Automatic annotation (TrEMBL):
The keyword Lyase does not apply. The lineage of its organism: Bacteria, Thermotogati, Deinococcota, Deinococci, Deinococcales. This is Oxidoreductase. Its cofactor is FMN. Keywords: Flavoprotein, FMN, NADP, Oxidoreductase.
Amino acid sequence: MTEPSLPSPSGAASPLLFTPLKLRSLELPNRVVVSPMCTYSATDGVANEFHLVHLGQYALGGAGLILAEATAVSPEGRISPEDLGLWDDRQIVPLGHITDFVHRHGGRIGVQLAHAGRKASTYAPWRGKGAVPPEAGGWQVIGPDEQRFHDLFPTPLMMGAGELRGVVDAFAAAARRAQVAGFDAVEIHAAHGYLLHQFLSPLANARTDDYGGSFENRTRLLLEVVRAVRHVWPDHLPLFVRLSATDWAEGGWDVDQTVQLGHLLKYEGVDVLDISSGGLTTAQQIEVGPGYQVPFAAAVSRAETEIAVMTVGMIETGAQAEAVLQSGDADLIALGRPFLRDPHWTQRAARELGLRPALPEQYARAGW
């Protein structure tokens, strides 16, 4: 079992990064979160040994919370044919093997529920570009309207009342399966240009009915999904929502709308806002640099939404993560690529910040 990092011999107070955080009944031993990262390695949405090893290593490395990759709530909601899924009961047990392993080694694990919308039925990055044709396992995609993300991407069918209701029901059903599989948290993916983000942004939503036009209408589907998931997800477990705070494009979704939505999500029982950005349009102009998305999280934090805020994006070191927390810009630090480079990032950050990290019993002889 991996325990929280131990205090330094001097007895100094733990850095904020290694201060526990309680979200409903779930207590995280530290503020380090493994961000959901697609691995495009499933068959028919079913997890396998790769996912067990990939996610299990982060529990051995001491991360406070592991978020499993975007997991489709329906077959047509997959980004690629190789995405994980929770649309079928047969997908529960393989994910349960993973949550059991994480829990046996002192970890906490959540799952990100997602629907790709018009960005579905596309190749995994190393397998090709653009739309997967039917003969290679592709399918008809859906979206708020008939706009494509890119010329190489599929043309979506505009969703009608039945498809809208179906998406809400699919998220709720997937959340029920996530509970049976033993996950400690659920995150609803409403960022990076996927279906729920498509409805939020005027750049991807040209509807003229109750789901398009005004802020109230564009946020309607997400709020319906959140409400349905919160209704079936246990009251004692936390619910996350990932948002792209800005489209990085004129006339798109922006920080002010994100803050406004954050206030609404508080009243729907959301516990954490996972603040990212971009992914909706090829016209985006992203200003990349160390911690480049932290100001968006800070804007939400300072707006007093009364929801915990998580930030992500080019946060590389323990000192950098600690500075974000000390400034009050966020409550949790999510990392993606740094964990791909070093699954034991959490333990290394603890040592960097003056703590004596605890190691799994099997690794203790290695020392630090």
